[in-house]
């Protein structure tokens, strides 16, 4: 039995073969006293080769990753995996059960809670278990996100720059192998406490991505994510190439790069309003192009306000909810980056 703070796991993570169990979180409040919150965990181990950890449900209202990780457990057998695959489809199960981004137990955002800590609440306890017992066993980590209830994302991998040129080249190669239509480049330390930084600190190859969003399941995003996971696992020798092909993998498309760092801009509402979008996710927009119209909810006499693109680029993120408050970002627009610029940014 493994224990980390309030988290336990009876599954033998190092046993050969294919086995499933749970990560159990004990939490005492009005809803969960005398209960264990069980999050499924699977291990497929065929030998002593490379080990990968694949996770979904880091945020509870993101579904493509949860489906892909469960499907990997269904479709792979130990004979397909020369090393091991560790599969955790619902990282933050309390959030998954509530269909919310963060945990209802402590408002913990799992992807700001790494590397985790003891005595710091249930979300950090879960993160600590993942860091100490799952990431520590892996050489490759894949964390699958989507936009969540409030946002829709283009299907994109993250190339988070680290300040280490060698690691940047490695991460760029991972994103190109995964082969989503877009790869967004973000600055170092963009989201502290994420699973990515815990995996990098452990020396793992790490890839994370966004597959659609809006609290729904997109067929297109799901297929793109499935293909990417199979290609990356095959390229890192976690599964054989013919296994990946058997499960439907084909060649990667060429990913295009966009700046989600200093060159990108939000389009932000500064009044309470009903928002009418004038552009769609993935669309190319010119600087100054009208992208949304805001109308007052209560007063027909108040003139509508037109919001324009503060920068030329691609609509990378779109807000799903049309009712907006001051400070709500309707869109995030980032310029496309050519290969030479990406190479310069990566050092
Ligand atoms: Zn997420």
TrEMBL record:
<dbReference type="GO" id="GO:0016811">
    <property type="term" value="F:hydrolase activity, acting on carbon-nitrogen (but not peptide) bonds, in linear amides"/>
</dbReference>
<keyword id="KW-0862">Zinc</keyword>
<dbReference type="Pfam" id="PF24827">
    <property type="entry name" value="AstE_AspA_cat"/>
</dbReference>
<dbReference type="GO" id="GO:0046872">
    <property type="term" value="F:metal ion binding"/>
</dbReference>
<dbReference type="InterPro" id="IPR053138">
    <property type="entry name" value="N-alpha-Ac-DABA_deacetylase"/>
</dbReference>
<dbReference type="GO" id="GO:0016788">
    <property type="term" value="F:hydrolase activity, acting on ester bonds"/>
</dbReference>
<dbReference type="InterPro" id="IPR043795">
    <property type="entry name" value="N-alpha-Ac-DABA-like"/>
</dbReference>
<dbReference type="InterPro" id="IPR055438">
    <property type="entry name" value="AstE_AspA_cat"/>
</dbReference>
<keyword id="KW-0479">Metal-binding</keyword>
<keyword id="KW-0378">Hydrolase</keyword>
<protein>
    <recommendedName>
        <fullName>Succinylglutamate desuccinylase/Aspartoacylase catalytic domain-containing protein</fullName>
    </recommendedName>
</protein>
<feature type="domain" description="Succinylglutamate desuccinylase/Aspartoacylase catalytic">
    <location>
        <begin position="49"/>
        <end position="234"/>
    </location>
</feature>
């Amino acid at each position: 039995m493994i224990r980390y703070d309030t988290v336990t796991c009876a599954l033998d993570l190092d046993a050969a073969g294919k086995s499933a169990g749970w990560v159990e979180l004990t939490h005492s409040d009005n809803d969960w006293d005398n209960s264990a919150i069980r999050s499924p965990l699977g291990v497929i181990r065929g030998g002593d080769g490379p080990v990968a950890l694949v996770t979904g449900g880091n945020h509870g209202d993101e579904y493509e990753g949860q489906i892909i990780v469960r499907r990997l457990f269904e479709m792979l057998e130990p004979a397909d995996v020369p090393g091991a695959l560790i599969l955790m489809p619902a990282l933050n199960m309390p959030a998954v059960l509530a269909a919310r981004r963060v945990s209802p137990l402590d408002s913990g955002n799992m992807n700001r809670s790494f590397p985790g800590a003891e005595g710091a609440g249930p979300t950090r306890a879960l993160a600590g278990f993942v860091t100490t017992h799952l990431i520590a066993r892996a050489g490759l980590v894949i964390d699958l996100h989507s936009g969540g209830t409030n946002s829709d994302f283009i299907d994109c991998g993250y190339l988070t720059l680290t300040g280490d040129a060698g690691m940047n080249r490695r991460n760029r190669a991972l994103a190109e192998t995964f082969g989503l239509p877009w790869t967004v480049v973000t600055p170092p330390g963009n989201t502290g406490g994420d699973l990515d930084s815990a995996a990098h600190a452990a020396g793992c190859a790490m890839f994370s991505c966004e597959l659609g969003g809006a609290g729904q399941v997109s067929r297109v995003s799901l297929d793109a994510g499935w293909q990417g996971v199979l290609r990356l696992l095959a390229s890192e020798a976690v599964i054989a190439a013919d296994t990946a092909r058997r499960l439907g993998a084909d060649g990667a498309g060429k990913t295009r790069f966009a700046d989600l760092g200093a060159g990108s801009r939000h389009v932000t509402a500064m009044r309470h309003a009903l928002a009418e979008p004038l552009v769609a996710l993935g669309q190319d927009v010119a600087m100054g192009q009208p992208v949304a119209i805001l109308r007052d909810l209560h007063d027909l006499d108040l003139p509508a306000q037109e919001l324009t693109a503060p920068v030329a680029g691609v609509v990378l993120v779109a807000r799903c909810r049309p009712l907006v408050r001051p400070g709500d970002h309707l869109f995030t627009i980032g310029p496309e980056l050519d290969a030479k610029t990406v190479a310069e940014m990566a050092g």
